[in-house]
Design goal:
The complex is a heterodimer. Chain A has 23 helices and 2 strands. Chain A has helices at 20-47, 57-64, 66-99, 105-117, 120-131, 137-145, 158-183, 186-194, 199-228, 230-240, 245-251, 259-287, 308-334, 350-358, 360-393, 399-407, 414-427, 436-460, 464-472, 477-505, 511-514, 522-531, 535-560; strands at 49-50, 53-54. The radius of gyration of chain B is 25 Å and the shape is elongated. By secondary structure, chain B is an alpha+beta fold. Classes of the chains: A mainly alpha, B alpha+beta.
Chain lengths: 573, 358
């Protein structure tokens, strides 16, 4: 070997101007433009025009009429309370788990995880079953049996909305705060103690400032998430006449639809969300000097002594409210002939039979949602892989821009995505309105940031030299991707796939404006069934919904190694 | 057969020039090392040769074929070169066999042939029988050999190596050095090797191209570069060095005289451009200074010094001595020559091994 010359004839070999890599990259850019840029542009255009003429009249109405500014105000109030209460619940739990000798920490983490993945519109339905003013089980118990009417609670109020929402959002603070508390180098605190500072002084002077950015950042994520949730705000707010931005935008699509006004409200909504996320980002940036200094030095755990039972009681209380109450009540309702205090006397499986076999809308909805979630997840992840590859591995001009555009949907509440897509596609000659395609587009554009994140995190782990070694070994771009890059990032892509699949299968905020009876989705079916008053059937469908989600997550932990719990929380409502 | 010809090669990243107007000819079957400190442009030059980067100016040719020029670059997979990366770049999801056979499969070499060639390549790097292992079951040295085998199996005319030994421990590095040299001799492949380790460069190379801040500062055999560095930067980079200030008293060419600090005369060769009366620095390597305990009459060029420190390094003794004007000299001598710290002795500088820099 060695004496034979290489079999390659180099003469006349030139690089093709349009290789596979340019074609794929261009395709990714074009998809982003269709998915994100053009719909947003239509939204902007629609908000500042009336009958084709430029005007600020829509914004004038949005800020001038009580109907609309009250909705804006309610959204802000809801977000603020939710953010604040998320800290009140999430921070003590985070501290207990990461800094004390609390027993059963796994149980506390599980509570937060379940609360995080429970779709808020399902817990809203559950809490209505418990706390609706007249028929709510707990209200009836206190009023009719105990004779203590002052202990009743009206769920159809701002307070009710905050309660249901915060049960979904406190995990943001919990996850960010506990990871900060765990990763703050313990030697930072130990050196304060060596210098003579006591436990309290160390906590206040050293630990608190180090952890504060994460806590605030979690609260801001809670805020952004809370105000974007359509389902819970409709289920609780509409009967209580507490309108918020998503429900107000939704009502603007009643006949005759007011697209211009809806677009203006949507843009105001986006502005709030983007501002909050921007502040959150700058807090996150501050974190960098805090964390991950030394993984080796674990913080010394504080012995709680007798206080541990108080802390434990707090965690159990949260578990009861956030997990047991919604799931147990939904489960109970789903097996009842009619919901009431005499639960044990009228058990039945009829509700499940109804939704699974008799009512064809739910069957179709389940199939549609499975198809939509699986397709959206696949497209989002593959698109994400190409986008992050272009960003990380090439020096194409404007690649950073590509990355930014792919993150824009993080700042778009679901209902806004729907309004933007409607604005855009109603102007297009291609009739996709009312089909599954437009819902699929909405899902992909909503969840593309998750796909990009997962792919770029995975791609960052791959040494570029591994790809270069394949190129110099004679493999073209496509072959290198197929044989080296994709196999190496597959686990990351897979967990990204599930990260999209789980929120997509329960997506409501965008679907609610885009569905037709043919393109019914699971969450919309739940909502419609609830609207029509099928309380027991809704519960059965909700349980089925949760079973599908649990199966997906189980699969994730089983196959992906690390499941949803290992991921940083992301805006996915 | 054809070598590599690089002409006026330049590469910028933004406004910073990383490679500045480098011209270099590498003969066929030659072992050439690009040597320099980190950031000198050596790796960029190698990646330009590999085709991973497009030059902003200049050309890279192999034989009559222009591989790289501004605007037209033959992609790496069409160059028929091999490359060994600093991080080895062994694919972790493939076995040793699958790693090595990769390029052959891409070229659609028949299975039987491919198997034979992989076996040969693995034997050549002493990895026979390890075909089914995964990279994470192997040591760093073994992974390095897989990387080598993966390149060699393609029978490239040119093999590019980017600091391939820098992640190995010292002992293994020494051994792999020797094996690499042996391999290059046997296969007659042109090796272009990048390192920041001057001893590695000297041990391996037929010729060394010393780079500094993007420029090629000297290109020559290891002996030439060590003994006659082109400037102070090269001299300094090629090993330990004493710089003694002095003034030219007279003479020219091979027969010059320089007065060192304290007035001691030293006969040595002068480079062109150095004239009488100029203040210069005399560069001399520690091993070219001899320490003697007492001055005998017939050696006038002895410089009186005081021993400041002595470090015993096993195979040599490393002295720090101070001349009368305060200039420090580093001296390496045989470990059995013992001088006590504080002792006043004499240093003899070998003029023929000195280089004068302005």
């Amino acid at each position: 070997m060695g004496q034979t010359p290489a079999a390659l004839n180099l003469t006349g070999v030139r690089q093709r101007k349009w290789g596979m890599e340019q074609i794929v990259a261009t395709g990714a850019i074009a998809s982003l433009i269709v998915l994100v840029v053009l719909p947003l542009a239509s939204l902007l255009w629609g908000s500042v025009t009336v009958d084709g003429r430029f005007t600020f009249a829509n914004f004038g109405r949005a800020f001038g009429e009580r109907l609309f500014y009250q909705a804006l105000l309610n959204s802000l109030i809801l977000g603020a309370w939710t953010g604040l209460l998320s800290i009140v619940i999430g921070l003590p739990m985070a501290w207990a788990v990461s800094r004390t000798d609390l027993p059963a920490k796994g149980f506390v983490r599980m509570t937060a995880n379940i609360a995080y993945i429970t779709p808020p519109f399902l817990s809203a339905i559950a809490f209505v079953n418990l706390f609706s003013p007249n028929a709510g089980l707990i209200n009836r118990f206190f009023r009719d049996i105990m004779g203590l009417p002052f202990l009743t609670f009206n769920i159809f109020s701002m307070r009710g909305m905050v309660l249901v929402t915060v049960l979904h959002t406190f995990p943001f603070v919990f996850l960010l705060a506990s990871s900060a508390l765990e990763s703050v180098d313990a030697s930072l605190e130990e050196s304060a103690q060596i210098l003579g500072a006591g436990r309290w002084r160390t906590a206040v002077k050293i630990a608190a400032p180090l952890v504060a950015p994460s806590v605030l950042s979690g609260a801001l994520l809670a805020f952004v998430n809370a105000i974007a949730l359509f389902g819970s705000q409709a289920i609780i707010g509409l009967p209580g006449r507490v309108f918020t931005l998503p429900t107000r935008i939704y009502s603007l699509f009643d006949y005759p639809p007011q697209y211009g006004l809806a677009s203006a409200l949507s843009l105001i909504f986006v502005a709030i969300t983007v501002l909050a996320l921007w502040v959150q980002r700058s807090y996150l940036a501050k974190r960098s000097y805090v964390t991950l200094a030394g993984k080796g030095v674990r913080p010394q755990l504080i012995a709680l002594g007798g206080y541990r039972w108080i802390v434990m009681a707090f965690c159990i209380f949260i578990f009861l409210v956030a997990v047991v109450a919604p799931y147990l009540s939904l489960l109970a309702v789903s097996f009842s002939k009619s919901w009431g205090l005499k639960f044990w006397q009228n058990l039945t499986l009829a509700n499940y039979q109804f939704i699974l076999f008799k009512y064809d809308v739910t069957q179709r909805a389940i199939l549609n949602s499975m198809f939509l979630a699986a397709s959206a997840a696949t497209i989002a992840v593959l698109l994400g892989a190409v986008i992050s590859w272009v960003d990380l591995r090439t020096n194409v001009r404007g690649r950073r821009l590509l990355d930014y555009i792919s993150l824009i949907p993080l700042g778009l509440p679901g209902i806004v995505v729907a309004v933007a897509l409607l604005q855009f596609w109603l102007r297009m000659p291609i009739p996709i309105y009312g089909t599954l395609t437009i819902i699929l587009l909405a899902y992909v554009s909503r969840f593309i940031p998750l796909g990009v994140r997962a792919a770029s995190a995975a791609l960052r782990q791959v040494d570029p030299a591994l790809e270069e070694a394949a190129r110099i070994g004679g493999a073209g771009w496509l072959c290198t991707m197929r044989k080296v890059t994709l196999p190496l990032i597959r686990p990351g892509l897979f967990s990204g796939w599930l990260l999209v699949f789980v929120p997509a299968i329960q997506e409501l905020s965008a679907s609610i404006l885009l569905f037709t009876s043919d393109s019914m989705t699971l969450a919309v079916a739940v909502y419609n069934l609830y609207e029509s008053g099928y309380r027991e059937a809704v519960a059965a469908l909700a349980i089925l919904n949760m079973l599908i989600i649990s199966a997906a997550i189980w699969l994730a932990t089983k196959l992906g190694g690390r499941g949803m719990t290992g991921q940083k929380p992301e805006v996915t409502s | 057969m054809d070598g590599i010809v690089i002409e006026n090669l330049s590469k910028h990243y933004g406004s910073t020039a990383v490679v500045k107007n480098v011209s270099l000819e590498i003969a066929d079957t030659e072992f050439v090392t690009l040597l320099g400190p980190s950031g000198c442009g050596k790796t960029t030059t190698l990646r330009l040769i590999a085709g991973f980067l497009k030059p902003d100016a200049g050309t890279i040719r192999v034989g009559d074929t222009i591989l790289s020029s501004k605007g037209s670059v033959v992609p790496p997979e069409k160059r028929g070169m091999g490359m060994v990366f600093q991080t080895y770049a062994i694919w972790p999801h493939l076995t040793v066999y699958e790693n090595v056979v990769f390029g052959l499969e891409v070229r659609r070499i028949p299975k039987q042939d491919a198997r034979k060639r992989v076996t040969d390549a693995l034997d050549m790097v002493h990895l026979g029988g390890m075909e089914d292992r995964y990279p994470n079951q192997m040591s760093g040295g073994q992974q390095q050999r897989v990387a080598l085998a993966r390149s060699l199996v393609m029978e490239p005319r040119i093999l590019l190596l980017d600091e391939p030994l820098s992640n190995l421990d010292a002992k293994l590095r020494e051994r792999m050095r020797w094996e690499l040299k042996e391999l290059q001799r046997r296969t007659a492949i042109t090796f272009v090797y990048v390192t920041h380790d001057q001893s590695e460069a000297m041990a391996l190379s037929d010729r060394i191209a010393v780079m500094h801040e993007g420029e090629l500062v000297q290109y020559g055999s290891p002996r030439e570069i060590y003994a006659h560095p082109a400037n102070r930067t090269v001299a300094d980079f090629m090993g330990l060095l004493n710089l003694v200030p002095g003034r030219v008293l007279g003479g020219s060419g091979d027969d010059g005289v320089v007065a060192l600090g304290g007035g001691h005369r030293l006969r040595l060769p002068l480079p062109s451009g150095i004239r009488e009366g100029m203040d210069v620095h005399v560069a001399i390597r520690p091993e070219n200074v001899t320490l003697v305990g007492t001055a005998s009459g017939d050696t006038p060029d002895l410089v009186p010094v005081r021993v400041a420190s002595c470090t015993f390094l096993g195979n040599l003794a490393d002295y720090q001595v101070v001349m009368e004007d305060g200039t420090q000299l580093r001296v390496q001598s045989h470990p059995l020559e013992i001088h006590d710290v504080g002792q006043r002795i004499y240093a003899q500088l070998d003029g023929s091994q000195c280089t004068v820099f302005p």
